[in-house]
Protein backbone atom coordinates (compact mmCIF):
# COMPACT_ATOMS: atom_id res chain seq x y z
CA UNK A 1 0.00 0.00 0.00
CA UNK A 2 1.20 3.50 -0.77
CA UNK A 3 1.37 6.07 2.03
CA UNK A 4 -1.73 7.77 0.59
CA UNK A 5 -3.64 4.46 0.69
CA UNK A 6 -2.46 3.82 4.24
CA UNK A 7 -3.69 7.27 5.25
CA UNK A 8 -7.07 6.49 3.65
CA UNK A 9 -7.25 3.20 5.57
CA UNK A 10 -6.34 5.00 8.82
CA UNK A 11 -8.99 7.66 8.20
CA UNK A 12 -11.57 4.93 7.51
CA UNK A 13 -10.90 3.17 10.81
CA UNK A 14 -10.84 6.50 12.65
CA UNK A 15 -14.21 7.59 11.22
CA UNK A 16 -15.70 4.17 11.89
CA UNK A 17 -14.51 4.24 15.51
CA UNK A 18 -15.76 7.80 16.03
CA UNK A 19 -19.20 6.99 14.62
CA UNK A 20 -19.34 3.83 16.73
CA UNK A 21 -19.22 5.61 20.08
CA UNK A 22 -21.28 8.57 18.86
CA UNK A 23 -24.06 6.18 17.77
CA UNK A 24 -24.28 4.92 21.35
CA UNK A 25 -23.67 8.30 23.04
CA UNK A 26 -26.15 7.48 25.81
CA UNK A 27 -23.80 4.69 26.91
CA UNK A 28 -20.49 6.38 26.13
CA UNK A 29 -20.65 10.16 26.48
CA UNK A 30 -23.54 10.91 28.82
CA UNK A 31 -22.65 8.75 31.88
CA UNK A 32 -19.23 10.38 32.55
CA UNK A 33 -20.89 13.80 32.57
CA UNK A 34 -23.46 12.67 35.15
CA UNK A 35 -20.96 10.77 37.29
CA UNK A 36 -18.45 13.63 37.46
CA UNK A 37 -21.23 16.11 38.23
CA UNK A 38 -22.05 13.88 41.23
CA UNK A 39 -18.35 13.82 42.22
CA UNK A 40 -18.28 17.62 42.13
CA UNK A 41 -21.42 17.89 44.25
CA UNK A 42 -20.49 15.25 46.82
CA UNK A 43 -16.68 15.51 47.07
CA UNK A 44 -16.25 19.11 45.91
CA UNK A 45 -19.20 20.91 47.51
CA UNK A 46 -20.36 18.80 50.45
CA UNK A 47 -17.18 17.09 51.71
CA UNK A 48 -14.71 19.54 50.12
CA UNK A 49 -16.16 22.46 52.07
CA UNK A 50 -15.02 20.68 55.25
CA UNK A 51 -11.45 20.30 53.91
CA UNK A 52 -9.00 23.15 53.95
CA UNK A 53 -7.13 24.45 50.86
CA UNK A 54 -4.40 22.33 49.26
CA UNK A 55 -1.40 24.21 47.85
CA UNK A 56 -3.46 27.40 47.97
CA UNK A 57 -6.47 26.02 46.05
CA UNK A 58 -9.90 25.03 47.34
CA UNK A 59 -10.56 21.30 47.41
CA UNK A 60 -13.05 21.69 44.53
CA UNK A 61 -10.41 23.40 42.36
CA UNK A 62 -7.83 20.81 43.38
CA UNK A 63 -9.86 17.76 42.30
CA UNK A 64 -11.09 19.15 38.96
CA UNK A 65 -7.90 18.22 37.01
CA UNK A 66 -7.90 14.78 38.63
CA UNK A 67 -11.52 14.12 37.71
CA UNK A 68 -10.99 15.26 34.12
CA UNK A 69 -7.99 12.95 33.92
CA UNK A 70 -10.01 10.10 35.49
CA UNK A 71 -12.65 10.50 32.76
CA UNK A 72 -10.08 10.58 29.98
CA UNK A 73 -8.27 7.49 31.27
CA UNK A 74 -11.37 5.35 31.76
CA UNK A 75 -13.07 6.40 28.52
CA UNK A 76 -10.12 6.07 26.17
CA UNK A 77 -9.39 2.64 27.66
CA UNK A 78 -13.02 1.49 27.62
CA UNK A 79 -13.55 2.65 24.04
CA UNK A 80 -10.73 0.64 22.55
CA UNK A 81 -11.12 -2.49 24.65
CA UNK A 82 -14.86 -2.75 23.96
CA UNK A 83 -14.54 -1.87 20.28
CA UNK A 84 -11.66 -4.26 19.63
CA UNK A 85 -13.20 -7.10 21.57
CA UNK A 86 -16.57 -6.40 19.93
CA UNK A 87 -14.85 -6.69 16.53
CA UNK A 88 -13.41 -10.03 17.58
CA UNK A 89 -16.71 -11.22 19.01
CA UNK A 90 -18.65 -10.37 15.83
CA UNK A 91 -15.67 -11.42 13.68
CA UNK A 92 -15.73 -8.11 11.81
CA UNK A 93 -12.05 -7.66 12.70
CA UNK A 94 -11.64 -10.04 9.74
CA UNK A 95 -12.71 -7.18 7.46
CA UNK A 96 -9.35 -5.58 8.23
CA UNK A 97 -7.34 -8.78 8.47
CA UNK A 98 -8.18 -9.89 4.92
CA UNK A 99 -7.34 -6.43 3.57
CA UNK A 100 -3.79 -5.15 2.94
CA UNK A 101 -4.00 -2.58 5.74
CA UNK A 102 -0.79 -2.85 7.84
CA UNK A 103 -1.09 -3.73 11.51
CA UNK A 104 0.35 -0.43 12.69
CA UNK A 105 -2.46 1.38 10.85
CA UNK A 106 -5.01 -0.85 12.63
CA UNK A 107 -3.40 0.11 15.96
CA UNK A 108 -3.38 3.82 15.08
CA UNK A 109 -6.98 3.62 13.88
CA UNK A 110 -8.33 2.03 17.05
CA UNK A 111 -6.16 4.34 19.18
CA UNK A 112 -7.57 7.39 17.39
CA UNK A 113 -11.08 6.27 18.36
CA UNK A 114 -10.03 5.99 22.00
CA UNK A 115 -8.34 9.39 21.88
CA UNK A 116 -11.42 10.99 20.29
CA UNK A 117 -13.71 9.63 23.00
CA UNK A 118 -11.24 10.50 25.76
CA UNK A 119 -10.93 14.08 24.51
CA UNK A 120 -14.67 14.52 23.96
CA UNK A 121 -15.52 13.22 27.43
CA UNK A 122 -12.65 15.30 28.93
CA UNK A 123 -14.12 18.44 27.32
CA UNK A 124 -17.61 17.61 28.62
CA UNK A 125 -16.31 17.05 32.15
CA UNK A 126 -14.35 20.31 31.89
CA UNK A 127 -17.55 22.16 30.91
CA UNK A 128 -19.45 20.50 33.78
CA UNK A 129 -16.72 21.59 36.19
CA UNK A 130 -17.26 25.20 35.13
CA UNK A 131 -20.71 24.98 36.69
CA UNK A 132 -19.05 24.46 40.08
CA UNK A 133 -15.83 26.46 39.98
CA UNK A 134 -13.88 29.03 37.97
CA UNK A 135 -10.99 27.42 36.13
CA UNK A 136 -8.05 29.11 34.48
CA UNK A 137 -5.60 27.10 32.43
CA UNK A 138 -2.09 27.77 33.71
CA UNK A 139 -0.22 26.26 30.74
CA UNK A 140 -2.21 25.33 27.64
CA UNK A 141 0.62 23.40 25.98
CA UNK A 142 1.21 21.17 28.99
CA UNK A 143 -2.54 20.67 29.50
CA UNK A 144 -3.20 19.72 25.86
CA UNK A 145 -0.16 17.49 25.49
CA UNK A 146 -0.83 15.59 28.74
CA UNK A 147 -4.45 14.97 27.72
CA UNK A 148 -3.41 13.75 24.28
CA UNK A 149 -0.56 11.53 25.47
CA UNK A 150 -2.58 10.03 28.34
CA UNK A 151 -5.47 9.15 26.06
CA UNK A 152 -3.03 7.54 23.60
CA UNK A 153 -1.42 5.56 26.41
CA UNK A 154 -4.69 4.18 27.74
CA UNK A 155 -6.09 3.51 24.27
CA UNK A 156 -3.06 1.30 23.62
CA UNK A 157 -3.56 -0.40 26.99
CA UNK A 158 -7.20 -1.06 26.06
CA UNK A 159 -6.10 -2.57 22.77
CA UNK A 160 -3.79 -5.04 24.53
CA UNK A 161 -6.65 -6.00 26.86
CA UNK A 162 -8.89 -6.44 23.80
CA UNK A 163 -6.34 -8.67 22.08
CA UNK A 164 -6.19 -11.06 25.03
CA UNK A 165 -9.89 -10.90 25.99
CA UNK A 166 -11.87 -14.07 25.34
CA UNK A 167 -15.12 -13.02 26.98
CA UNK A 168 -16.95 -9.88 28.04
CA UNK A 169 -15.78 -10.62 31.62
CA UNK A 170 -12.19 -10.24 30.45
CA UNK A 171 -12.75 -6.70 29.26
CA UNK A 172 -14.02 -5.55 32.65
CA UNK A 173 -11.45 -7.27 34.88
CA UNK A 174 -8.56 -4.87 34.19
CA UNK A 175 -10.64 -1.66 34.43
CA UNK A 176 -12.26 -2.84 37.66
CA UNK A 177 -9.37 -4.42 39.49
CA UNK A 178 -6.36 -2.52 38.12
CA UNK A 179 -7.28 0.73 36.39
CA UNK A 180 -9.80 2.12 38.89
CA UNK A 181 -7.65 1.46 42.01
CA UNK A 182 -4.56 2.91 40.32
CA UNK A 183 -6.51 5.99 39.23
CA UNK A 184 -8.03 6.58 42.66
CA UNK A 185 -4.61 6.08 44.27
CA UNK A 186 -2.96 8.29 41.66
CA UNK A 187 -3.67 11.56 43.43
CA UNK A 188 -7.03 12.38 41.86
CA UNK A 189 -8.55 13.34 45.23
CA UNK A 190 -5.44 14.15 47.26
CA UNK A 191 -1.84 15.31 47.17
CA UNK A 192 0.71 12.59 47.90
CA UNK A 193 2.33 15.06 50.28
CA UNK A 194 -0.59 14.24 52.60
CA UNK A 195 0.76 10.64 52.83
CA UNK A 196 3.56 9.29 55.03
CA UNK A 197 7.00 8.96 53.43
CA UNK A 198 6.51 5.21 52.97
CA UNK A 199 3.22 5.58 51.09
CA UNK A 200 4.63 8.50 49.11
CA UNK A 201 7.39 6.18 47.88
CA UNK A 202 4.88 3.44 47.06
CA UNK A 203 2.73 5.94 45.18
CA UNK A 204 5.64 6.77 42.88
CA UNK A 205 5.31 3.28 41.34
CA UNK A 206 1.84 4.24 40.07
CA UNK A 207 2.17 5.65 36.51
CA UNK A 208 -1.19 7.41 36.74
CA UNK A 209 0.22 9.66 39.48
CA UNK A 210 2.55 11.25 36.90
CA UNK A 211 -0.27 11.95 34.47
CA UNK A 212 -2.61 13.42 37.06
CA UNK A 213 0.14 15.65 38.43
CA UNK A 214 1.34 16.82 35.03
CA UNK A 215 -2.23 17.68 34.12
CA UNK A 216 -2.77 19.43 37.45
CA UNK A 217 0.29 21.51 36.68
CA UNK A 218 -1.19 22.43 33.27
CA UNK A 219 -4.44 23.62 34.88
CA UNK A 220 -3.38 24.96 38.30
CA UNK A 221 0.39 25.31 38.06
CA UNK A 222 1.04 22.96 41.00
CA UNK A 223 2.46 19.43 41.00
CA UNK A 224 3.94 16.84 43.35
CA UNK A 225 6.14 15.44 40.56
CA UNK A 226 8.78 16.96 38.29
CA UNK A 227 7.19 17.72 34.89
CA UNK A 228 10.08 16.32 32.83
CA UNK A 229 9.88 13.03 34.75
CA UNK A 230 6.13 12.86 34.13
CA UNK A 231 6.47 13.39 30.38
CA UNK A 232 9.35 10.93 30.12
CA UNK A 233 7.34 8.24 31.87
CA UNK A 234 4.23 8.83 29.75
CA UNK A 235 6.22 8.77 26.50
CA UNK A 236 8.17 5.71 27.63
CA UNK A 237 4.94 3.82 28.35
CA UNK A 238 3.49 4.81 24.96
CA UNK A 239 6.53 3.47 23.11
CA UNK A 240 6.49 0.21 25.07
CA UNK A 241 2.73 -0.33 24.71
CA UNK A 242 2.74 0.47 20.98
CA UNK A 243 5.57 -2.03 20.47
CA UNK A 244 3.66 -4.68 22.42
CA UNK A 245 0.49 -4.03 20.36
CA UNK A 246 2.43 -4.33 17.11
CA UNK A 247 4.11 -7.53 18.24
CA UNK A 248 0.78 -9.07 19.23
CA UNK A 249 -0.99 -8.18 15.99
CA UNK A 250 1.98 -9.31 13.88
CA UNK A 251 1.89 -12.65 15.69
CA UNK A 252 -1.89 -12.79 15.23
CA UNK A 253 -2.43 -13.29 18.98
CA UNK A 254 -6.15 -13.49 19.73
CA UNK A 255 -7.17 -12.68 16.15
CA UNK A 256 -5.76 -15.41 13.91
CA UNK A 257 -6.04 -19.15 14.34
CA UNK B 1 -0.30 -17.29 -17.82
CA UNK B 2 0.12 -16.86 -14.06
CA UNK B 3 -2.35 -18.91 -12.03
CA UNK B 4 -4.97 -16.94 -10.11
CA UNK B 5 -4.25 -19.13 -7.11
CA UNK B 6 -1.31 -21.42 -6.56
CA UNK B 7 -1.02 -23.61 -3.46
CA UNK B 8 2.01 -25.80 -2.81
CA UNK B 9 2.38 -28.42 -0.09
CA UNK B 10 -0.07 -26.63 2.19
CA UNK B 11 -0.52 -28.19 5.59
CA UNK B 12 -2.10 -27.14 8.82
CA UNK B 13 -1.90 -28.77 12.22
CA UNK B 14 -3.85 -27.06 14.98
CA UNK B 15 -2.56 -26.65 18.52
CA UNK B 16 -4.73 -29.54 19.71
CA UNK B 17 -2.81 -31.81 17.31
CA UNK B 18 -5.58 -32.11 14.70
CA UNK B 19 -4.18 -32.04 11.16
CA UNK B 20 -6.71 -30.28 8.95
CA UNK B 21 -4.58 -30.20 5.79
CA UNK B 22 -1.97 -32.76 4.80
CA UNK B 23 0.17 -31.05 2.19
CA UNK B 24 -2.20 -30.18 -0.63
CA UNK B 25 -1.23 -28.74 -4.03
CA UNK B 26 -3.75 -26.82 -6.07
CA UNK B 27 -3.83 -24.39 -8.99
CA UNK B 28 -6.76 -22.33 -10.14
CA UNK B 29 -6.36 -20.63 -13.50
CA UNK B 30 -7.34 -17.05 -14.27
CA UNK B 31 -10.98 -16.63 -15.28
CA UNK B 32 -12.01 -20.01 -13.89
CA UNK B 33 -15.18 -20.76 -11.96
CA UNK B 34 -13.80 -23.37 -9.60
CA UNK B 35 -15.60 -25.62 -7.10
CA UNK B 36 -13.82 -26.64 -3.91
CA UNK B 37 -15.92 -29.37 -2.37
CA UNK B 38 -15.69 -31.72 0.55
CA UNK B 39 -17.71 -32.96 3.51
CA UNK B 40 -17.85 -30.99 6.77
CA UNK B 41 -14.44 -30.89 8.45
CA UNK B 42 -12.62 -31.88 5.25
CA UNK B 43 -10.35 -28.83 5.30
CA UNK B 44 -12.11 -26.44 2.90
CA UNK B 45 -12.55 -23.57 5.34
CA UNK B 46 -9.03 -24.05 6.69
CA UNK B 47 -7.70 -23.73 3.13
CA UNK B 48 -9.74 -20.58 2.57
CA UNK B 49 -8.68 -19.22 5.97
CA UNK B 50 -5.01 -19.68 5.06
CA UNK B 51 -5.43 -18.09 1.61
CA UNK B 52 -7.11 -15.07 3.18
CA UNK B 53 -4.54 -14.98 6.05
CA UNK B 54 -7.10 -15.52 8.79
CA UNK B 55 -5.40 -18.80 9.69
CA UNK B 56 -1.65 -19.27 10.01
CA UNK B 57 -0.41 -22.23 7.97
CA UNK B 58 1.99 -24.86 9.29
CA UNK B 59 3.88 -25.38 6.02
CA UNK B 60 3.53 -24.59 2.35
CA UNK B 61 3.22 -21.67 -0.02
CA UNK B 62 0.26 -19.70 -1.28
CA UNK B 63 0.45 -17.25 -4.17
CA UNK B 64 -2.37 -15.08 -5.53
CA UNK B 65 -1.76 -13.99 -9.13
CA UNK B 66 1.90 -14.86 -8.58
CA UNK B 67 2.26 -12.83 -5.38
CA UNK B 68 3.37 -14.83 -2.36
CA UNK B 69 1.07 -14.25 0.63
CA UNK B 70 4.10 -14.32 2.97
CA UNK B 71 6.53 -12.03 1.19
CA UNK B 72 4.12 -9.84 -0.84
CA UNK B 73 1.11 -10.00 1.44
CA UNK B 74 -0.06 -6.45 0.71
CA UNK B 75 -0.21 -6.93 -3.08
CA UNK B 76 -1.58 -10.47 -2.78
CA UNK B 77 -4.43 -9.30 -0.58
CA UNK B 78 -5.38 -6.54 -3.02
CA UNK B 79 -6.31 -9.22 -5.56
CA UNK B 80 -8.49 -11.16 -3.15
CA UNK B 81 -12.15 -10.82 -2.16
CA UNK B 82 -13.64 -13.13 0.48
CA UNK B 83 -17.21 -14.09 1.32
CA UNK B 84 -16.87 -16.20 4.48
CA UNK B 85 -19.25 -18.87 5.67
CA UNK B 86 -20.30 -17.03 8.85
CA UNK B 87 -21.64 -13.49 8.97
CA UNK B 88 -18.70 -11.32 9.97
CA UNK B 89 -19.83 -7.73 9.93
CA UNK B 90 -20.80 -5.37 12.72
CA UNK B 91 -24.55 -5.86 12.87
CA UNK B 92 -25.03 -2.39 14.37
CA UNK B 93 -23.41 -0.59 11.43
CA UNK B 94 -25.50 0.65 8.49
CA UNK B 95 -25.28 -1.50 5.35
CA UNK B 96 -23.77 1.28 3.22
CA UNK B 97 -21.06 2.06 5.77
CA UNK B 98 -20.00 -1.59 5.99
CA UNK B 99 -19.34 -1.70 2.26
CA UNK B 100 -17.72 1.76 2.04
CA UNK B 101 -15.45 1.07 5.03
CA UNK B 102 -14.27 -2.17 3.44
CA UNK B 103 -13.10 -0.21 0.40
CA UNK B 104 -11.32 2.17 2.77
CA UNK B 105 -9.27 -0.68 4.24
CA UNK B 106 -7.93 -1.21 0.72
CA UNK B 107 -6.92 2.45 0.51
CA UNK B 108 -9.78 3.47 -1.79
CA UNK B 109 -10.85 7.06 -1.13
CA UNK B 110 -14.35 7.65 0.20
CA UNK B 111 -15.72 9.24 -2.97
CA UNK B 112 -14.67 6.30 -5.17
CA UNK B 113 -15.76 3.85 -2.47
CA UNK B 114 -19.27 5.37 -2.40
CA UNK B 115 -19.63 4.92 -6.16
CA UNK B 116 -18.41 1.33 -6.05
CA UNK B 117 -20.63 0.53 -3.04
CA UNK B 118 -23.63 2.05 -4.83
CA UNK B 119 -22.97 -0.09 -7.92
CA UNK B 120 -22.72 -3.40 -6.05
CA UNK B 121 -25.53 -2.65 -3.59
CA UNK B 122 -27.80 -1.89 -6.56
CA UNK B 123 -26.64 -5.01 -8.40
CA UNK B 124 -27.45 -7.12 -5.36
CA UNK B 125 -30.75 -5.44 -4.55
CA UNK B 126 -29.61 -3.80 -1.31
CA UNK B 127 -29.49 -0.13 -2.30
CA UNK B 128 -32.79 0.63 -0.56
CA UNK B 129 -31.36 -0.86 2.64
CA UNK B 130 -28.15 1.17 2.67
CA UNK B 131 -29.15 3.23 5.72
CA UNK B 132 -30.50 0.24 7.69
CA UNK B 133 -28.48 -1.46 10.39
CA UNK B 134 -27.21 -4.82 9.15
CA UNK B 135 -28.99 -6.66 11.97
CA UNK B 136 -32.33 -5.75 10.38
CA UNK B 137 -31.54 -7.59 7.14
CA UNK B 138 -32.93 -11.03 6.33
CA UNK B 139 -30.54 -14.00 6.05
CA UNK B 140 -30.46 -13.78 2.25
CA UNK B 141 -29.78 -10.04 2.37
CA UNK B 142 -26.92 -10.57 4.81
CA UNK B 143 -25.34 -13.04 2.37
CA UNK B 144 -25.70 -10.52 -0.45
CA UNK B 145 -24.23 -7.80 1.75
CA UNK B 146 -21.12 -9.94 2.24
CA UNK B 147 -20.85 -10.41 -1.53
CA UNK B 148 -21.17 -6.65 -2.14
CA UNK B 149 -18.55 -5.99 0.54
CA UNK B 150 -16.14 -8.51 -0.95
CA UNK B 151 -16.39 -6.93 -4.40
CA UNK B 152 -16.18 -3.25 -3.51
CA UNK B 153 -12.42 -3.10 -4.19
CA UNK B 154 -12.81 -5.00 -7.51
CA UNK B 155 -10.82 -8.14 -6.64
CA UNK B 156 -9.55 -10.39 -9.43
CA UNK B 157 -10.04 -13.51 -7.30
CA UNK B 158 -13.26 -14.00 -5.35
CA UNK B 159 -13.61 -16.82 -2.83
CA UNK B 160 -17.13 -17.71 -1.75
CA UNK B 161 -17.50 -20.05 1.21
CA UNK B 162 -21.06 -21.38 1.02
CA UNK B 163 -22.55 -18.10 -0.20
CA UNK B 164 -26.08 -19.41 -0.68
CA UNK B 165 -26.49 -21.31 2.59
CA UNK B 166 -29.97 -20.69 3.94
CA UNK B 167 -31.00 -18.62 0.93
CA UNK B 168 -34.34 -19.32 -0.79
CA UNK B 169 -34.32 -20.73 -4.30
CA UNK B 170 -35.37 -17.51 -6.05
CA UNK B 171 -32.59 -15.42 -4.48
CA UNK B 172 -30.14 -18.29 -4.99
CA UNK B 173 -30.86 -18.32 -8.72
CA UNK B 174 -30.44 -14.54 -8.94
CA UNK B 175 -27.14 -14.84 -7.06
CA UNK B 176 -26.02 -17.49 -9.55
CA UNK B 177 -26.81 -15.14 -12.43
CA UNK B 178 -24.84 -12.37 -10.72
CA UNK B 179 -21.85 -14.65 -10.11
CA UNK B 180 -21.92 -15.87 -13.72
CA UNK B 181 -21.90 -12.24 -14.85
CA UNK B 182 -18.89 -11.18 -12.77
CA UNK B 183 -17.07 -14.35 -13.83
CA UNK B 184 -17.78 -13.53 -17.48
CA UNK B 185 -16.42 -10.04 -16.79
CA UNK B 186 -13.09 -11.61 -15.77
CA UNK B 187 -13.26 -12.32 -12.03
CA UNK B 188 -11.87 -15.73 -11.08
CA UNK B 189 -14.23 -17.42 -8.64
CA UNK B 190 -13.62 -20.23 -6.14
CA UNK B 191 -16.81 -21.61 -4.66
CA UNK B 192 -17.42 -23.99 -1.79
CA UNK B 193 -20.96 -25.20 -1.35
CA UNK B 194 -23.01 -28.06 0.00
CA UNK B 195 -25.51 -27.59 -2.84
CA UNK B 196 -23.84 -29.78 -5.44
CA UNK B 197 -26.40 -28.73 -8.03
CA UNK B 198 -24.95 -25.25 -7.56
CA UNK B 199 -21.39 -26.42 -8.19
CA UNK B 200 -22.47 -28.47 -11.22
CA UNK B 201 -24.41 -25.57 -12.66
CA UNK B 202 -21.78 -22.86 -12.11
CA UNK B 203 -18.30 -24.37 -12.07
CA UNK B 204 -16.03 -25.52 -14.89
CA UNK B 205 -13.37 -27.16 -12.72
CA UNK B 206 -13.53 -28.93 -9.42
CA UNK B 207 -11.37 -30.13 -6.55
CA UNK B 208 -12.54 -32.37 -3.73
CA UNK B 209 -10.90 -32.35 -0.32
CA UNK B 210 -11.49 -35.13 2.15
CA UNK B 211 -9.81 -35.54 5.52
CA UNK B 212 -7.14 -32.99 4.64
CA UNK B 213 -6.20 -34.59 1.32
CA UNK B 214 -7.00 -33.45 -2.18
CA UNK B 215 -8.70 -36.53 -3.61
CA UNK B 216 -9.80 -35.04 -6.92
CA UNK B 217 -8.82 -32.12 -9.13
CA UNK B 218 -10.24 -32.12 -12.63
CA UNK B 219 -12.78 -30.52 -14.94
CA UNK B 220 -16.47 -30.83 -14.11
CA UNK B 221 -17.13 -32.39 -17.52
CA UNK B 222 -14.49 -35.09 -17.04
CA UNK B 223 -15.66 -35.86 -13.54
CA UNK B 224 -19.29 -36.24 -14.57
CA UNK B 225 -18.23 -38.47 -17.48
CA UNK B 226 -16.96 -40.97 -14.89
CA UNK B 227 -20.45 -41.55 -13.57
CA UNK B 228 -21.13 -45.15 -14.63
CA UNK B 229 -24.59 -45.54 -13.24
CA UNK B 230 -27.43 -43.07 -13.02
CA UNK B 231 -30.54 -43.63 -10.94
CA UNK B 232 -33.91 -42.42 -12.24
CA UNK B 233 -37.30 -42.12 -10.61
CA UNK B 234 -40.13 -43.06 -12.99
CA UNK B 235 -43.73 -41.95 -12.39
CA UNK B 236 -46.33 -44.33 -13.88
CA UNK B 237 -49.60 -43.39 -15.52
CA UNK B 238 -51.50 -46.35 -14.03
CA UNK B 239 -50.86 -48.12 -10.72
CA UNK B 240 -48.93 -51.39 -10.83
CA UNK B 241 -49.57 -53.78 -7.94
CA UNK B 242 -46.85 -56.27 -8.76
CA UNK B 243 -43.85 -55.58 -10.94
CA UNK B 244 -43.72 -57.98 -13.95
CA UNK B 245 -40.52 -59.72 -14.99
CA UNK B 246 -38.34 -57.26 -16.91
CA UNK B 247 -35.10 -57.57 -18.87
CA UNK B 248 -33.69 -54.70 -16.86
CA UNK B 249 -32.92 -56.12 -13.44
CA UNK B 250 -32.17 -52.90 -11.58
CA UNK B 251 -35.79 -51.84 -11.16
CA UNK B 252 -37.15 -51.28 -7.69
CA UNK B 253 -40.80 -50.54 -6.92
CA UNK B 254 -41.17 -47.60 -4.53
CA UNK B 255 -44.99 -47.64 -4.55
CA UNK B 256 -47.81 -48.49 -6.97
CA UNK B 257 -47.08 -45.52 -9.24
CA UNK B 258 -43.36 -44.98 -8.67
CA UNK B 259 -40.35 -47.01 -9.81
CA UNK B 260 -36.65 -46.50 -9.21
CA UNK B 261 -34.26 -47.73 -11.86
CA UNK B 262 -30.46 -47.71 -12.03
CA UNK B 263 -29.09 -47.55 -15.57
CA UNK B 264 -25.47 -48.05 -16.51
CA UNK B 265 -23.95 -45.50 -18.87
CA UNK B 266 -23.61 -48.08 -21.69
CA UNK B 267 -27.28 -49.02 -21.52
CA UNK B 268 -29.65 -47.54 -24.10
CA UNK B 269 -32.68 -45.94 -22.45
CA UNK B 270 -34.84 -47.04 -25.41
CA UNK B 271 -34.35 -50.66 -24.38
CA UNK B 272 -35.67 -49.83 -20.96
CA UNK B 273 -38.73 -48.04 -22.28
CA UNK B 274 -39.42 -50.86 -24.79
CA UNK B 275 -39.28 -53.31 -21.91
CA UNK B 276 -41.89 -51.29 -19.98
CA UNK B 277 -44.10 -50.85 -23.05
CA UNK B 278 -44.14 -54.63 -23.67
CA UNK B 279 -45.39 -55.14 -20.12
CA UNK B 280 -48.07 -52.48 -20.57
CA UNK B 281 -46.45 -50.02 -18.18
CA UNK B 282 -46.87 -46.41 -19.27
CA UNK B 283 -44.30 -43.87 -18.01
CA UNK B 284 -45.79 -40.47 -17.25
CA UNK B 285 -42.57 -38.65 -16.32
CA UNK B 286 -39.06 -39.27 -15.00
CA UNK B 287 -36.29 -37.47 -13.12
CA UNK B 288 -32.80 -38.11 -11.77
CA UNK B 289 -32.95 -39.46 -8.22
CA UNK B 290 -30.08 -37.20 -7.19
CA UNK B 291 -27.98 -34.62 -8.91
CA UNK B 292 -25.24 -36.35 -10.93
CA UNK B 293 -22.39 -34.63 -9.09
CA UNK B 294 -23.97 -35.55 -5.78
CA UNK B 295 -24.05 -39.21 -6.79
CA UNK B 296 -20.34 -39.12 -7.64
CA UNK B 297 -19.43 -37.06 -4.60
CA UNK B 298 -21.13 -39.50 -2.25
CA UNK B 299 -19.30 -42.43 -3.83
CA UNK B 300 -15.94 -40.71 -3.53
CA UNK B 301 -16.33 -39.42 -0.01
CA UNK B 302 -17.98 -42.53 1.43
CA UNK B 303 -15.32 -44.84 0.05
CA UNK B 304 -12.40 -42.54 0.65
CA UNK B 305 -9.25 -42.25 -1.34
CA UNK B 306 -9.34 -45.81 -2.69
CA UNK B 307 -12.57 -45.23 -4.60
CA UNK B 308 -11.20 -41.98 -5.92
CA UNK B 309 -8.30 -43.92 -7.32
CA UNK B 310 -10.62 -46.46 -8.95
CA UNK B 311 -12.70 -43.77 -10.55
CA UNK B 312 -9.63 -42.12 -11.93
Question: Keywords, please?
Answer:
heterodimer, A: 257 residues, mainly alpha, 11 helices, 74% helix, B: 312 residues, alpha/beta, Rossmann fold, Alpha-Beta Plaits, 2 domains, six-stranded mixed beta sheet, four-stranded antiparallel beta sheet, 10 helices, disordered C terminus
Describe the protein's architecture and organization.
The complex is a heterodimer of chains A (257) and B (312). Chain A is built from 11 helices and no strands. Chain A has 257 residues and is mostly helical. Chain A has one domain (3-251). The mean pLDDT of chain A is 90. By secondary structure, chain B is of the alpha/beta class. In chain B, 36% of the residues lie in helices and 27% in strands. Chain B has helices at 44-51, 73-78, 95-105, 110-123, 139-151, 169-184, 196-202, 220-225, 269-278, 292-311, and strands at 5-13, 19-28, 33-37, 59-64, 67-68, 80-83, 157-161, 188-192, 205-210, 213-219, 229-236, 251-255, 258-264, 283-288. A 6-stranded mixed beta sheet of chain B has the order 6-7-8-3-9-10, sandwiched between helices. In chain B, a hairpin with a 2-residue loop joins strand 12 (251-255) and strand 13. In chain B, helix 4 (110-123) crosses helix 5 (139-151). Chain B is globular, with a radius of gyration of 23 Å. The interface between A and B is medium-sized, with 31 and 36 residues.
Strand content of chain B: 25-35%
Question: What does the overall shape of chain B look like?
Answer: globular
What average pLDDT do the residues of chain B reach?
87
Q: From the helix content, strand content and strand pairing of chain B, which structural class follows? A: alpha/beta
Major sheet size, sense and barrel closure of chain A: none
Amino acid sequence: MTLQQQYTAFKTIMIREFLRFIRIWVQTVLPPAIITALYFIIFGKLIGSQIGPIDGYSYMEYIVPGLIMLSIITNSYANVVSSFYGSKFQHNIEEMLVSPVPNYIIILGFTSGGVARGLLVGCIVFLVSLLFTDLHIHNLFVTASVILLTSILFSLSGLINGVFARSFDDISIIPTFVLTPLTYLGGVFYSIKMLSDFWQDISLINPILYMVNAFRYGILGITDINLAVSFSIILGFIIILFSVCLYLLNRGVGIRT
Amino acid sequence: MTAALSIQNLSKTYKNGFTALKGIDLEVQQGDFFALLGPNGAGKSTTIGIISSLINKTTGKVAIFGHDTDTEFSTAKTYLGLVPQEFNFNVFEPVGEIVINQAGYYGIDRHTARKSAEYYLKQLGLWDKRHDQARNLSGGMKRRLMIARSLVHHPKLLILDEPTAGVDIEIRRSMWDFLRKINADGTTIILTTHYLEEAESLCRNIAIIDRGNLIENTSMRELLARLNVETFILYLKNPVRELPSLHCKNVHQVDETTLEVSVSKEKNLNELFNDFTKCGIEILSMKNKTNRLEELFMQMVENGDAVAGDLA
